[in-house]
């Protein structure tokens, strides 16, 4: 398979990975032939990249951080939990979902098990979903990334569960923000921005009332927009004033948000997002935490379609952990636009004169 921008898709190509709805169910499945109607509909749903079948790359499959089954279960748990909490009266000062903590700890335990089985492979987050699914898929992605950082820091099981449950529900306050405001494409007014920023305190108020949920998990909702230099919100905390769980969740949140399509901007590529995070070291985020995080992220995920400085189009076929910006690539189109008679590979670690100039 290969990953390409939807503008590069030609009618007749077939999906190699499914498109997911907000509850995690499949909207379009593997093998579906794309026609103009499907392509236009996917664009309207905010989808900008797709994985499609290609005879030159049919053996390439990005290593998933977690299995499809685990992701489906996690998305469903977040979806149902947020729906239940949204329908409750939060001001009564009581736990409105007494089994919530146990269920989410179980779900995050399955995420951890998948991540640990995966080993040291650099992370690809490859699920493709509609914009309506962003909140739930994003929460699961943040939990995956946070869990990986927690493991790298040597956290014990209790710490990992506190961090993981906090990451799954860190954005629960967003359920109180009007949908039209979340999807607004223009510049936010000061009043609109204040409404959105209130999701941190709203989320904390919701989670702190759950009797089987750690208060430290609730702080992930409260503090994930605080920043290392004190420029964040809601309280302008800085450095060690921000709980480390919230620092981890805030970093994972930023990376996944940057690499996801949003109504007000295009997505960043993984390499662009990593550049942003390094530039934000010791301003938005602790630089040591940034370095630890980026050690586990694939700069050019397998199946990414790229243009080389030679004019060739290629697909990333393997990553190199010792030279993350220099993957092995498989050429699928020559500079004159023709396909090679047989696919062949270039190891950019060895071919130092050849550069990746852009992702397609």
Q: Briefly, what is this?
A:
The chain contains twelve helices and ten strands. The chain is α+β, with helices and mostly antiparallel strands. The protein has three domains: 1-61, Alpha-Beta Complex (Molybdopterin biosynthesis moea protein, domain 2); 68-294, Hypothetical protein af1432 (Orthogonal Bundle); 304-360.
What do these coordinates show?
The structure is a single chain. With 360 residues, the chain is of the alpha+beta class. The protein folds into three domains: 1-61, Alpha-Beta Complex (Molybdopterin biosynthesis moea protein, domain 2); 68-294, Orthogonal Bundle (Hypothetical protein af1432), CATH 1.10.3210.10; 304-360. Helices cover 39% and strands 11% of the residues. The protein is built from twelve helices and ten strands. It has helices spanning 36-44, 68-86, 100-118, 134-152, 157-168, 179-182, 190-197, 199-207, 215-223, 244-258, 270-279, 287-294, and strands at 2-5, 19-20, 26-28, 49-52, 128-129, 305-308, 313-318, 328-333, 344-347, 356-359. Strands 9-8-7-6-10 form a five-stranded antiparallel sheet, with no helix packed on it. It has a three-stranded mixed sheet with strand order 3-2-5, with no helix packed on it. A hairpin with a 5-residue loop joins strand 2 and strand 3. Helix 4 runs antiparallel to helix 5 (157-168). The radius of gyration is 21 Å and the shape is globular.
């Amino acid at each position: 398979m290969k990953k390409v921008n939807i503008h590069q898709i030609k009618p007749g190509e077939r999906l190699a990975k499914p498109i997911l709805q907000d509850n995690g169910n499949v909207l379009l499945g593997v093998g579906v032939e794309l026609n103009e109607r499907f392509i236009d509909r996917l664009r309207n749903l905010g989808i900008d990249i797709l994985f499609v079948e290609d005879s030159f790359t049919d053996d390439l499959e990005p290593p998933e951080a977690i299995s499809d089954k685990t992701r489906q279960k996690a998305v469903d748990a977040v979806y149902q939990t947020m729906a239940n909490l949204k329908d409750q009266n939060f001001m009564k000062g009581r736990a409105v979902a007494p089994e919530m903590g146990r269920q989410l700890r179980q779900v995050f335990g399955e995420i951890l098990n998948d991540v640990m089985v995966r080993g040291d492979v650099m992370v690809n987050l490859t699920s493709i979903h509609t914009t309506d699914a962003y909140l739930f898929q994003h929460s699961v992605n943040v939990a995956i990334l946070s869990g990986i950082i927690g493991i790298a820091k040597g956290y014990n099981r209790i710490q990992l569960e506190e961090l993981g449950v906090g990451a799954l529900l860190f954005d629960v306050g967003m359920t109180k923000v009007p949908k039209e405001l979340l999807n607004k494409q223009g510049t936010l007014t000061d009043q609109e921005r204040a409404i959105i920023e209130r999701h941190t305190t709203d989320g904390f108020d919701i989670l702190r009332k759950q009797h089987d949920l750690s208060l430290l998990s609730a702080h992930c909702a409260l503090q994930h927009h605080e920043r290392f230099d004190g420029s964040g919100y809601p309280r302008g905390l800085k450095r060690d004033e921000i709980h480390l769980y919230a620092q981890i969740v805030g970093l994972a949140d930023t990376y996944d948000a940057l690499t996801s399509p949003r109504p007000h901007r295009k997505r960043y590529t993984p390499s662009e997002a990593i550049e942003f995070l390094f530039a934000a070291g010791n301003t938005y985020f602790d630089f040591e935490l940034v370095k630890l995080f980026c050690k586990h992220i694939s700069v050019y995920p397998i199946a990414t379609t790229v243009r080389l400085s030679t004019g060739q189009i290629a697909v990333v076929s393997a990553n190199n952990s010792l030279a993350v910006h220099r993957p092995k690539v498989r050429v699928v189109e020559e500079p004159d636009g023709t396909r090679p008679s047989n696919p062949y590979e270039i190891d950019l670690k060895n071919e130092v004169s050849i550069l990746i100039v852009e992702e397609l």
